[in-house]
Amino acid sequence: MKHYKIALTIAGSDPSGGAGIQADLKTFSACGCYGATVIVAVVDENTIGVTDVHPIPVPFVSGQIKSVLDDIGADAIKIGMLHSSELILAVKDTLSRYSIKNIVLDPVMVATSGDKLLQDEAIETLKSELIPFVRVITPNIPEAEILLGKKIRSQEELPKVIKDLSFGNRVSVLLKAGHLTGDKLTDVFYNAETNEIIELSSQRIHTKNTHGTGCTFSSAVAAFLARGLSLTGAVKHAKDYINKAITAGAGYEIGKGHGPVHH
Ligand code: PLP
């Protein structure tokens, strides 16, 4: 019998197809997994920005998670935009009934366009309830600054602050450096299970097509974990995938704003 590894995303829907659930599902397929999706919010957005967010009723989100996990299960889960405290608590409560180790949390807060995707009052709930519950978090610089409560000014600071994001060395952290300036871009990964810090360097790819890069990167980590790679191996493969996805999509003209990457 052929075994197909299953990756589940719990996130918001982007009708323009570049971010959120749609990016996650395309990434799962491209990275060799069967993808399943639980939608927590329908976002009215495109490559230019977010117009509105329509959250799905909380019992309906819990119901979708149960429907997927009771039937097909999941080898890894990626959690993206959760919008509110109620949704964060419901997702944690439902997932805690299953023993799934590979949970990747992208602490989505603000879109590239500057629009808020997580309510301000939900940030504390994310920190106290969900982050300590997952295997790895994938903040970008603005998200890390909010979690840390302080500014990050340079690349040199990343290896110093990364452990402060690990909640007492319990949670691994992939800190994405794309928001810093410079032609060399070095993401930093702290593996809390081996207590190692690894630098993942690449040349910056100059393109406006960056919509959904965060979603794609975290989904790729989940897909490679589902396929049985080590944590560090999954992060390295995901970095390679996101670089190739941005490079391949750099020349596309899709939409009037920040276009998507290529999956
Ligand atoms: N829309 C949805 C539904 C998302 O989950 C995310 C995730 O980060 C975004 C938009 C943000 O996309 P970007 O910041 O790449 O524009």
Automatic annotation (TrEMBL):
Keyword Plastid on entry: no
EC numbers for this chain: 2.7.1.49
Pfam families registered for this protein in UniProt: Phos_pyr_kin (PF08543)
Pathway(s) served: Cofactor biosynthesis; thiamine diphosphate biosynthesis
Pyridoxamine kinase/Phosphomethylpyrimidine kinase domain location: 14-262
Cited PANTHER family: HYDROXYMETHYLPYRIMIDINE_PHOSPHOMETHYLPYRIMIDINE KINASE THI20-RELATED, PHOSPHOMETHYLPYRIMIDINE KINASE
Protein name, per record: hydroxymethylpyrimidine kinase
Biological source species: Dysgonomonas termitidis
Lineage: Bacteria, Pseudomonadati, Bacteroidota, Bacteroidia, Bacteroidales
